[in-house]
Each structure stands twice: as structure tokens, then as C-alpha cells.
Design a protein that fits this description.
This protein is an alpha+beta fold. It is built from nine helices and 19 strands.
Length: 358
């Protein structure tokens, strides 16, 4: 607590009340939700669990404590692809600054991060946009000094500090979440970035977002699923990661009224070796989307959920703290399309997103 107080006093020195009234938006993942901030679990909110995700203890709390108005759109185990299709429902169009904290979950490379940035600028055309430079522990030494990505500034979390594993929470392998010290490091860098915005001119106004969005989490999908049940895969680690699980063939999820444009379905991979697949159907024309690193990424309409298929490149492993997730993407060519997801004898889906043009 003494270190946190010292950092806040240092960073708030010379920051005017006008600056602290900036409206901030934050787009993020589990790091944004405070995962790892209870390592060590010394705060009463942690309830003695080092693996709890407590947003009130994460790095975004430092911005609120500094007097900024902050709205957060963050989802555990989601990637930029999913987040980019749900921005219109989650962000105010009049934000002044938007910080994007997704580099730990850029599962399919930089292209999806750049797509998220582009859609962010369309939703909030007057906002300055920057990426938070927090990376998985296995990549941080190679990437920590990067200053931009596709022209978007990166808030350098480490500054002059040498990247060190002691700032990560050992709740997963590889380590991804910042621990309490790591969250303070991120918060300090974000405050320093905000201080430096005073002399910058506002960005040019862009065309506003004109999309219909359909964004469904596990609870939304459960209401559309015959023969499924809600399961929290993160329960044992105090991290909420709800999925719709079906334990028999014949279970089906029916999603009505999908708009034209990209659609993304996140699902759970299994260790069975039985070649199981989810099967996606449309009552309109739908087509597969090529992946950014392989033509075999985003398999459609038969989606392999068997880890034994990983060796031939058809699935990309995404090792989260509470399971292995991946996302398939496809294009819907008509508005009002009905999409179905048929389960094998056992499978689970996490969330669905569609950003269809109006």
C-alpha cells in the first residue's frame, strides 16, 4: 500500500483537475479485470485466494483513484476478434482516450489487434487510442521495447525496468497475469501516458460506427441451446469462465437474426483424441474466413475441437488459466440469417459475436 500511495503521489503531481476529468475507455481481457492482483492475497477482497480476479485491485483502479472517469469493457478468455465486434454496445462514442489491453490474447497475430483498433476509432472517432504494452512472460523480453503497432502508440509498461518474471502471477503456464506489483506497474505507465497527452492535438474525426451487433456470452447462448448446461471452468481458480457444455450428441444452439458480416464463435478444445467436431449451419449463404497466419485457421463449417488435430495446424492452441479456447470465424452473406451449432457427444462453447453492417 505504501508503494501504491507513493506512485500515485508522484504521478499526480502537476496533473490538473481538467485532465483528470478526461473520459477514459478501457478495452481488455483478464488482465484488465484484475486477474493476478491477489498475488499475494494480502487484501481483504482477495478472501485468501491468490487466483481471484478483482477489478477493484487491478491497474484500472489506479486511474479511478487519480480522478479520471473510466468505463471498462473487459472479458476473460476473449480475443481482439470477439471484442472488436461488440464495441458499439459497450463503448460511449464521446470518449476522450481509449486504452486497449489485449496483447496477451492476440491469439492470431497483430492483424486482429489492428482490426480492433480500427473499429475502436470508428465507434469513438474523437478518442485518442493506445495499446497497453503488457505481454505474456514468454514474449516480454522480445517485445517490451516496441513503441507502436500498426501506427498505434504502445504504452511502454516496463520503461527503464528490465522485464522480470517477479511481476507475474504464477497462476498459469506460461505466465500471463500481472501480480499486485505488475498491476501497479501497468497503472503507473498508463497514468504517465495520460499526463503526456496535454500537448497533443485531438485526432481527426472519422465516420461513426454504423453496425448492428449481436454479442452473446455463455448465459445468452444457454437460453438458445437445447440440451446444454452452464459450467464455470474457472471456478477452481476463482476466475469466472462460463461455458455452455453439452454431454451428448444432438444438443444444438440456435442463434436467430444474425446480421451480415463477420461472425465469431469461441469454443473449448478437449483432450480426447476422438476427432470430435462442432458443426455450424446457416439458413443463408455463409463462407469460411482465411486465417491471418494459415489458410487452415478458422475451420468452417466443421470445427475440430480435438487437441489431437493440433499437429496439422487446423487448430491454434490457446492455453488459458482454466482451459484451452479457440475461435472460429466465418462470413454471413445475408441479414436475418439463422445460425445453428450442433454438438458432438461432448463439447462446449464460450461466446458468439457478429458485427453486421446496417
Amino acid at each position: 500500500m505504501a508503494l501504491l500511495a507513493m506512485l500515485l503521489l508522484t504521478l499526480l503531481k502537476g496533473v490538473s483537475p481538467l485532465e483528470r476529468r478526461l473520459k477514459l475507455g478501457i478495452i481488455g481481457v483478464s488482465t484488465t479485470n484484475g486477474c493476478g492482483a491477489c498475488e499475494p492475497p494480502t487484501h481483504s477482497l482477495c478472501n485468501h485466494s491468490a487466483r481471484a480476479c478483482i477489478p477493484e485491485l487491478g491497474w484500472t483502479s489506479m486511474l479511478r483513484a487519480a480522478g479520471y472517469q473510466v468505463e471498462v469493457y473487459a472479458k476473460n478468455a476473449a480475443g481482439p476478434l470477439y471484442l472488436s465486434l461488440c464495441l458499439g454496445q459497450r463503448l460511449s462514442p464521446d470518449l476522450d482516450v481509449i486504452l486497449i489491453d489485449v496483447l496477451t490474447n492476440a491469439y492470431h497475430g497483430n492483424a486482429e489487434v489492428e482490426a480492433l483498433v480500427g473499429r475502436t476509432r470508428a465507434v469513438a472517432p474523437s478518442a485518442r487510442v493506445a495499446l497497453i504494452g503488457w505481454y505474456p512472460e514468454t514474449k516480454v523480453r522480445a517485445l517490451h521495447a516496441r513503441e507502436t503497432l500498426g501506427g498505434t502508440p504502445i504504452v511502454r509498461v516496463w520503461g527503464q525496468i528490465e522485464p522480470d518474471g517477479r511481476f507475474y502471477a504464477p497462476d498459469a503456464r506460461p505466465m500471463v497475469h500481472p501480480n499486485a506489483e505488475g498491476h501497479r506497474l501497468i497503472g503507473s505507465a498508463a497514468l504517465e501516458y495520460l499526463r503526456g497527452l496535454r500537448a497533443e492535438p485531438p485526432p481527426p474525426s472519422l465516420r461513426r460506427w454504423e453496425r448492428d451487433e449481436l454479442c452473446l456470452d455463455a448465459r445468452d447462448l444457454l437460453r438458445r441451446t437445447e440440451g446444454g448446461q452452464l459450467v464455470d471452468l474457472g471456478r477452481g481458480k476463482a476466475v469466472t469462465k462460463e461455458v455452455v457444455w453439452a454431454g451428448h450428441a444432438g444438443a444444438v444452439t440456435r442463434i436467430e437474426g444474425v446480421g451480415g458480416g463477420e461472425a465469431h464463435l469461441t469454443y473449448v478444445l478437449r483432450r480426447r483424441g476422438d476427432g470430435a467436431q462442432l458443426r455450424i449451419g446457416c439458413d443463408c449463404r455463409c463462407s469460411s474466413l482465411p486465417g491471418s497466419w494459415s489458410s487452415r485457421l478458422f475451420p468452417f463449417p466443421a470445427v475440430p475441437i480435438d487437441l489431437s488435430l493440433a499437429a496439422d495446424g487446423r487448430v491454434r492452441l490457446i492455453n488459458t488459466t482454466s482451459g484451452i479456447f479457440d475461435t472460429t470465424a466465418f462470413r454471413v452473406h445475408a441479414k436475418g440469417c439463422n445460425v445453428s451449432v450442433k454438438f458432438p457427444h461432448e463439447g462446449a462453447i464460450v461466446h458468439f459475436a457478429n458485427g453486421g453492417a446496417k
